[in-house]
Amino acid sequence: MKIELSKKDLRTAQLKASIWTGGNLDKFVSEAINTHEVDDKAPKATLELYIQRGENTETVVVKNVPHKVKEEVSNVEPIENVILSAAIEEILEEDFQELPKEIEFVDLVK
Q1: Quick check: 79 and 43 in contact, CB under 8 A?
Q2: Residue 41 parent element (H or E)
Q3: What Å distances lie between residue 42 and 5, 65, 106, CA to CA?
Q4: What percent of the chain has pLDDT over 70?
Q5: Average pLDDT, the chain
Q6: Which stretch of DSSP H or E encloses residue 70?
Q7: Do residues 60 and 99 lie in contact, with contact meaning Cβ atoms separated by under 8 Å?
Q8: Which tens digit of pLDDT belongs to each residue from 7-38?
């Protein structure tokens, strides 16, 4: 995955990296990532993802995925975050030689 920043955002990141990490932009970004934790209070949902491996399609259940909710008159329904689902699928495809049948979301962000 490639990250693209506007020229202004890149300059800002470089300046902040100069202050906080001796100019090491990679270290600055890594520390920023580790600063943002998964919100334990966010509503959780279970995702069922279908990963294509050669001729086979494998199902992976990802539990306790943070989701926004859309409140209706009588129920609360999770709103699928397509970007989050795609990122989870990419991690599963690239980082797991053997796909788990089930995994907790927090195990993907450790």
Answers
A1: no
A2: none
A3: 28, 9, 13
A4: 87
A5: 85
A6: strand 68-71
A7: yes
A8: 888 888 888 889 889 989 899 888 888 887 77
Q: Report the 10 Å Cβ neighbour count for 57.
A: 9
Q: What Å distances lie between residue 20 and 3, 5, 27, 30, CA to CA?
A: 21, 19, 9, 12
H or E segment and range at residue 88: helix 82-95
105 and 81 Cβ atoms separated by less than 8 Å: no
Angle, CA 81 vertex, CA 80 and CA 85 arms, to 5° = 100
Beta strands 76-79 and 68-71 are antiparallel
Residue 91, exposed/middle/buried by CB under 10 A (0-12, 13-18, 19+)? middle
State the Cα–Cα distance between residues 19 and 87, nearest whole angstrom.
31
Tokens describing residue 29? 């970004």
Residue carrying structure tokens 């995994």? 103
- Look up the pTM and report it: 0.69
